[in-house]
Amino acid sequence: MTQSELISLDVTFEDNRLLPLLMGKRDHYLKRIEDALQISISGRGNRLVLSGPAHQVTIAQSALMRLYDRLKKGLVVSNAEVDAAVRLAGAHQKPAGASSFDTHTDYSGLSISTRRHVVSPRSPNQERYIDLLFQKDLVFATGPAGTGKTFLAVATAVAYLLDGKVDRIILSRPAVEAGERLGFLPGDLREKVDPYLRPLYDALHDMLPDDQMARRLESGEIEVAPLAFMRGRTLSRSYIILDEAQNTTEAQMKMFLTRLGEGSRMVVTGDLTQVDLPMGVNSGLRHCLSILQTIDDIGVMRLDKSDVVRHDLVSKIVEAYEARSGRSV
C-alpha cells in the first residue's frame, strides 16, 4: 500500500459518551482534522469512518486515538489540542518504505502534572524539550515567543516541588534590558521589578491555585527575583529558571550558571532574535551556548516557529517577521 492509495478505515470507540466531546460542537473538531489532512470523516454509531490517502488516514486515526485517550483521562479537548494531536501523530507516523531507523522517538503519554493542569506537549520539539527537562540537570531552550519554552519549564518546576524533589523554585530574569537600571523607575524595589517579572507570575498562576501560590511565595518556597539578586548565592535543592536570558551579559550568565548547587536543576530560556543589550555587548546566552552545548550532561533545545502554540496568529506573525528579515528565528 502506497501513501497516495485511497483507503477507508473504521475506528471504533468503546465509550459513546465521549464521542460528542471528541467530535466537537457540530463536528467542529472532525472538520478541523479533515481540513488539516485533506480526508473525509463520517460517523456511524460508535464508529468513525476515515477516507482518503492512506498516509493521511493513518495520521488521523492516531490523532483521534490520542484525543480519545485525553478524554478518558478526564482532560479537555480544544482546537489547540486537536492541532497538536495531528501535528504529533504526523511526526510519529513512519512513511511507507522507511526503515526502522527513520522513526521519531515516541513520547506518547509524556506530560507534566500540576495542581491546575496536566500539561502535555503540542509539538515534537516540545516532547523532546520535556524529556530533556526530566533527564538533564541543566537545560538551555531557545526559540521565538509562544513556543512554550518558559511555560513548560515552570510547569516542570511546579511538578518537582509538589513531588518533593526540590525544596523551592527560583524564577529570575534580567529586569531592564539586562542592565537592571531600576533607579529611574517610581516606587519601592518591589514596585520597580514586578512589571518585568510579571510573565513568571502569570506562568505560576496557570499551575497553582491563587491561595497556594500566595502561601508558597510568602514562605519562600517560590521566589521570583531579578537576576541581580542571584549574585553570591549557592542554590541547593532548588529548581532555578532564568527567563529572557538573551539579555544577560557574559559575566551575568557565568554568575548565574555557577549558582547551581547540590540537588538542584536549572533551565535557561531566551530568544536570540530579541536581544536588547547595548550595541557591541555580546549576549551571555549566545556566548555560553557556543562553549557549553557539547557537554553531554547539558541539554540544548532549539524551538522554532513550528512549535508556536499560542493563538494561531502568533505563528503567522513570527513567520512574517522571519520572511522580512530573511533569517530563521
Characteristic terms for this protein:
329 residues, alpha/beta, Ribosomal Protein S8, Chain: A, domain 1, Rossmann fold, 2 domains, 11 helices, 11 strands
Topology:
Layout: E1 6-12, H1 19-23, H2 28-37, E2 40-44, E3 47-53, H3 54-72, H4 79-92, E4 112-113, E5 118-119, H5 124-135, E6 138-142, H6 149-162, E7 168-173, H7 189-207, H8 210-219, E8 222-226, E9 238-242, H9 250-257, E10 265-270, H10 284-292, E11 298-302, H11 312-325
Helix pairs in contact: 2-4, 3-4, 5-6, 6-7, 9-10
Structural class: alpha/beta
Low-confidence stretches: 96-108, 184-189
- Helix amount, in percent? 40-55%
**Biggest sheet, in brief?**
6 strands, parallel
What is the first-to-last residue Cα distance?
Answer: 38 Å
What integer value in Å does the Rg equal? 22 Å
Order of strands, main sheet, comes to 8-7-9-10-6-11
Q: In total, how many domains does the architecture comprise?
A: 2
CATH architecture grouping of the largest domain: 3-Layer(aba) Sandwich
Mean pLDDT: 84
- Number of DSSP helical runs: 11
Total strand count, please?
11
Anisotropy-based shape: globular
The CATH class of the largest domain turns out to be Alpha Beta
User: Could you name the CATH topology of the largest domain?
Assistant: Rossmann fold
